[in-house]
Automatic annotation (TrEMBL), chain A:
Its cofactor is FAD. PANTHER family: ELECTRON TRANSFER FLAVOPROTEIN ALPHA (PTHR43153), ELECTRON TRANSFER FLAVOPROTEIN SUBUNIT ALPHA, MITOCHONDRIAL (PTHR43153:SF1). Belongs to the ETF alpha-subunit/FixB family. It comes from Nocardioides jiangsuensis. The electron transfer flavoprotein serves as a specific electron acceptor for other dehydrogenases. It transfers the electrons to the main respiratory chain via ETF-ubiquinone oxidoreductase (ETF dehydrogenase). Residues 2-192 form the Electron transfer flavoprotein alpha/beta-subunit N-terminal domain. Heterodimer of an alpha and a beta subunit. It comes from the Bacteria. The lineage of its organism: Bacteria, Bacillati, Actinomycetota, Actinomycetes, Propionibacteriales. SMART domains: ETF. This is Electron transfer flavoprotein subunit alpha/FixB family protein.
From TrEMBL, chain B:
It comes from Nocardioides jiangsuensis. PANTHER family: ELECTRON TRANSFER FLAVOPROTEIN BETA-SUBUNIT, ELECTRON TRANSFER FLAVOPROTEIN SUBUNIT BETA. Keywords: Electron transport, Transport. The electron transfer flavoprotein serves as a specific electron acceptor for other dehydrogenases. It transfers the electrons to the main respiratory chain via ETF-ubiquinone oxidoreductase (ETF dehydrogenase). This is Electron transfer flavoprotein alpha/beta-subunit N-terminal domain-containing protein. Heterodimer of an alpha and a beta subunit. SMART domains: ETF.
Length: 328, 257
């Protein structure tokens, strides 16, 4: 059995969790028609639970393990891991999969430590199942590592957007198995005390955006974003920036795209004045279409893009904005 | 007073092209040089701030080759008081091995009368990206652990920390001792002063041998993603390209639907 840790948000099972489910289902088929189970650790409202069960059924999940413990409402990685370990042990799972999100990787690291097994982070493919060898992203995605997992339970996170979340050929009506997790007080010490939402933080909007307008050193300074923000608004997208922009304090860190920022997978990415260092490419390489605007036609961002316009973003972006307004 | 141990890793500076060694087991960094990750630069800054604010000591540690002394000296130049090098071939170690090596140093120093109230690390190594050493270290030491932390401060015997969560800034309060994995973005690493550099040259660096058993990293080999030949279509130059851009946006369904 392969167990998948499913994260939820206001739309139910998150996109990357559904990607992880598809990844697990394809791996389970190669392991000889193993069933796929899901673990949902955070307590859900009943209407949300109904939606999640339907989404997991579309992914062909056989059984959904739900931890019944109100203390898990507040996030604590160790407590969530304790609940996942219970499900792994109860079902003797041979593989545990989660999305390679900050929380997915954090909870899996706790689980792997508790089970005394290795963990592979940000896996993109299973190379062989006997022995189990996976390929995963290293160096922020600019290189790949083949890693062997020999333990009784293989623990791995799936890199965001490594595969599309395809529905199963035969949807299921999953069985829901509630259980009381063995969470101790010690597991709750490092829990979120409170969440401050006073500062507008659009990290979630950035990672889920269909269109992202990117800005790099070429913006020129903290006042150089007016046209770029207008383009962002005209396209109904989100602004993402390179590391140099946040390092110089031109824009807040949560807007950073790259190895030390967010990873995005929009339908369209429009990097403006971004040279395209590996650090940045690591965060934007999953974009379906890339349209680069840059003065240097030899910049890596331009040569790696699908489309490009050569020139100064401060002249080109206002012209695009005007053309967009004209045609509306 | 809070003593802080901050861990850094010497990694290839792969801002440009990545080359692999002939055996495919490591990165060939002869032409690109070495650095530490931005997360770790911020961890060093936080370690220094906590030590300064509480009158404690900040120690910098690295598990790696003798060349990693360069990265230790850089941290010593910005406020760490002393360094520890656990000499090992980091390419052969997995995250459990590194965590065991760090835990060994923490315990040894504690036996010698110096206890670390806080251990800071980068959130994930820039090269291997395992996301595990802080968590495995915390379990080895029997301490609570936070990851993805931007800022932290020590108030008496408690730690107050903040990090970006899915719904905003998450605040944590927990008793010390603790282990914290730091993300870039909360503090700006300071630049070394000339006196700082001078002091770093004389600061003590203890070298210890790796004693923990080796579990390994499971690495079979490294490989590079297939390089795609450039297939970029230049839509035009300057503002005159705007209609062609909007045509494209319409064609791929981003506008006009």
């Amino acid at each position: 059995m392969i167990l998948v840790l499913v994260e939820t948000d206001a739309q139910g099972a998150t996109l990357v969790s559904r990607e992880a489910l598809t990844f697990a289902r394809e791996t389970a088929a190669r392991l000889g028609d193993q069933p796929v189970h899901a673990a949902v650790v955070a307590p859900l409202e009943e209407s949300m639970a109904t939606l999640v069960m339907k989404q997991l059924g579309e992914q062909g999940v056989a059984v959904v393990h739900t931890a019944d413990d109100e203390r898990l409402t507040t996030y604590a990685a160790a407590a969530h891991a304790a609940a996942v370990v219970d499900a792994v042990r109860a079902e003797q799972a041979r593989m545990l999969v989660a999305a390679g999100t900050p929380r997915g990787n954090e909870v899996l690291a706790h689980v792997a430590t508790r089970l005394e097994v290795a963990m592979a982070a940000n896996v993109v493919a299973v190379d062989s199942v006997e022995p189990l060898v996976v390929t995963r992203q290293v160096l922020g995605g600019s290189a790949l590592e083949e890693m062997r997992l020999d333990d009784a339970v293989a623990v791995l996170s799936v890199a965001g957007h490594a595969c599309d979340p395809e529905p199963a050929e035969v949807p299921t009506a999953p069985e829901r198995l509630g259980y009381t997790p063995s969470v101790t007080d010690q597991d709750l010490v490092a829990r979120v005390a409170r969440t401050e939402v006073t500062v507008v933080d659009d990290t979630a909007a950035l990672t889920g955006a269909r269109v992202v307008v990117g800005a790099g050193r070429g913006a020129g300074g903290p006042d150089g974003f007016k046209d770029l923000l207008e383009l962002t608004e005209l396209l109904g997208g989100a602004l993402g920036v390179s590391r140099v922009v946040t390092s110089l304090g031109w824009r807040p860190h949560h807007e950073q795209v790259g190895q030390t920022g967010s990873r995005i997978a929009p339908d369209l990415y429009v990097p403006c004045g971004i040279s395209g260092a590996i650090q940045h490419w690591a965060g934007c390489q999953s974009a379906k279409t890339i349209l680069a605007i840059n003065t240097d036609r030899d910049a890596p961002m331009v040569t790696k893009a699908h489309y490009a316009v050569i020139g100064d973003l401060h002249e080109i972006v206002p012209a695009i904005n005007e053309e967009l307004r004209r045609r509306k | 007073m809070a003593n802080v141990l901050v861990c850094v890793k010497r990694v290839p500076d792969t801002a440009g092209e990545v080359l692999l060694s002939a055996d495919g087991l490591s990165v060939d960094a002869r032409h690109v040089g070495y650095t530490v990750s931005p997360h770790e630069e911020c961890a060093v800054e936080l370690a220094t701030q906590v030590a300064e604010a509480t009158g404690g000591r900040a120690t910098v540690l690295s598990v790696g080759s003798e060349d990693a002394v360069e990265q230790l000296r850089n941290a010593l130049a910005v406020g760490c008081a002393d360094g520890v090098l656990v000499e090992a071939d980091a390419d052969l170690l997995g995250p459990a091995d590194v965590a065991a090596a760090v835990a060994g140093v923490v315990r040894e120093r504690e036996a010698g009368g110096l206890s670390y109230d806080l251990v800071l690390l980068g959130n994930d190594a820039a090269d291997t990206g395992d996301f595990q050493v802080p968590v495995r270290l915390a379990y080895a030491l029997g301490r609570p652990v936070l990851t993805g932390i931007s800022t932290c401060e020590v108030q008496d015997d408690r730690l107050l920390a903040r990090g970006d969560g899915p719904d905003g800034t998450e605040v944590f309060e927990l008793p010390l001792p603790a282990v914290v994995a730091v993300m870039e973005g909360g503090v700006s690493p300071r630049y070394p002063s000339i006196p700082g550099r001078m002091k770093a040259k004389r600061a003590p660096v203890e070298t210890v041998a790796l004693t923990a058993a080796r579990q390994g990293s499971g690495r079979v080999r490294l490989k590079l993603p297939p390089s795609q030949p450039s297939s970029v279509e230049i839509l035009g130059e300057g503002p005159e390209a705007a209609p062609a851009v909007v045509d494209l946006l319409t064609r791929i369904g981003v506008v006009g639907r």
